[in-house]
Amino acid sequence: MAVKVYKKNNAGRRNMSVVKPDNLTDKKPEKSLLQTLNKKVGRSWGKISVRHRGGGAKKKYRLVDFKMDKNGIPGKVMAIEKDPNRSALIALVTYADGEKRYIIATENMKVGDKIISGEKVDIKEGNRTMLKNIPVGTTVCNVEMIPGKGAQMVRSAGSSALLQAIDNGFAQLKMPSTEIRLVRGDCYATIGQVSNHEHNIYRIGKAGRKRHMGRRPKVRGSAMNPVDHPHGGGEGRQPIGLKYPKTPWGKPALGVKTRKKKKASNKYIISRRKKRRK
């Protein structure tokens, strides 16, 4: 992993940097695994539903195989690529039957590695098997929540879950958020940690680069008038003057719990995530 810092040729370049993973393959993406990505960012029927989003550079979606359901068929990693739609790196895998698929790359995955999915596989990074067949204490990622549905948890760059115990047909996982939850033992998971753990150490450098990423300008609530935001108003800079921060629509913000109290999957959570101290 290398961080490239640009020369200070102008104000925009000053302090700008990009992260360049060492194991990237210099090739164009696989054409058969690309799909057109329509721009509907932050809009619902044309109306803004999520603020500060829109625009951005044109990009195509990579069809990533989250199921990895070619059980018993070995595959070979042909390339490691950067996906503009996610923080993790993706790997182009060619299977023994000739089919090509993109998968989420693990941390130490490189070109030429052999991987396989199935009920009985070697406990090796990149392989995929059922949680009940993985030794306790192993780090896993790309975890299923429902058998056969494909990976839904632990998919972002650098994330991993720790398999703590297996009991009564359920695996006990410690999630990246420190939450401890139960997952069915016949759910599949990939052994190892998701790649590109240093993806967020770069510096944006200039506003235009943020626009290329699809982020529009934000204005602080305290800089607005009282009619526009609960934090607005006052002569000069003032504290928000409230017991807790609020959204522009007057609802509690920052730290308020949004999970439904009667959600069906609450019974699978053994320990809720710990609050992070500022």
Commentary on this structure:
With 278 residues, the chain is an all-beta fold. The protein folds into two domains: 2-191, Nucleic acid-binding proteins (OB fold (Dihydrolipoamide Acetyltransferase, E2P), Beta Barrel); 219-278, Ribosomal protein L2, domain 3 (Irregular), CATH 4.10.950.10. It is built from one helix and 19 strands. It has one helix at residues 207-212; strands at residues 2-5, 17-20, 34-36, 43-44, 47-48, 60-62, 75-82, 89-95, 100-104, 114-115, 128-130, 139-141, 143-144, 151-153, 161-167, 170-174, 180-184, 188-191, 269-271. The chain has a seven-stranded antiparallel sheet with strand order 11-18-12-15-16-17-19, with no helix packed on it. The chain has a four-stranded antiparallel sheet with strand order 9-8-7-10, with no helix packed on it. Strand 13 (143-144) and strand 14 (151-153) form a beta hairpin. The longest helix is centred in the C-terminal third of the chain and has 6 residues, at 207-212. The protein is globular. The two termini are 28 Å apart.
